[in-house]
Amino acid sequence: MSVWVLVADASRARFFSADKPASPLTEVTELIDPVARLHDAELTTDTDNRGRSPKGMGSHGPGDAPSLKTEQAGHFAQQICDLLGRAHRDGKFSKLYVVAAPAFLGILRKCRTLSHDKLVVGEVAKNLGTHSLAEIRAHLPQYL
Predict the structure, then answer these.
(1) 46 inside domain
(2) What is the mean pLDDT of each run of 10 residues along the chain (144 residues)?
(3) Within a domain: residue 114?
């Protein structure tokens, strides 16, 4: 079985494979969440100004529910974890490296199942989603 590398942020996830520990990466598939690029205001269609002060001074404090963008990132992270779960069950990889934007890495950690945690052999907290294969590979161990 090969090693997989997930490179992700809140709007895009790229999955790579390496057949041998020192092999170059080959792109397997990609997931894109176009909703993640929208602003919070664009995510709602019927705003009623709840959570705003009477004078329009903004929303309430840090105890409020998560923003729609954070919620959407959680849904996208779950899609990624579901894809990883299916791929592992199908025998497509035995080890996983995760390279993700720091905030999104935290969200991914929350959705992983225990079986995924056993598969994750390394993490890199960097946003490399738009980088080349060579640049991504340079942030990983020489022998995967």
Answers:
(1) no
(2) 92 93 90 70 50 51 63 90 92 94 92 74 93 92 88
(3) yes
